[in-house]
Amino acid sequence: MRIIKEAFLKDASVLYPKAARFLAAWRAIVRLAAWRSLPDVRKTYGSADAVTVKSKRTVTVFNVCGNDYRLIVAIHYKTQIVYMLRFLTHSEYSKDKWKDEL
What we know:
With 102 residues, the chain is of the alpha+beta class. Helix content is 38%, strand content 30%. It has helices spanning 7-15, 20-32, 38-44, 90-94, 97-101, and strands at residues 2-4, 49-52, 58-64, 69-76, 81-89. A hairpin with a 4-residue loop joins strand 4 (69-76) and strand 5 (81-89).
């Protein structure tokens, strides 16, 4: 898959060093992936969830470092493109404000 705004992951790694190893591995895995649906994603990342946001679009949320962070992306399965949207701490994610912004 192609990752759009890949620099976003590098920036998140700098801001949150604890997540750097996970994000580097995630990036490498996603580049090689050929996901066609959420069940395909869950074969690799069992905790991945689909969440509907205010715009009525569905985003995919990955748990990072257990439950410490959340990586929020839009996966376009037909075009094999993953768009980086947000990287949040657990407490930021729990407030649900991010859903209104997407």
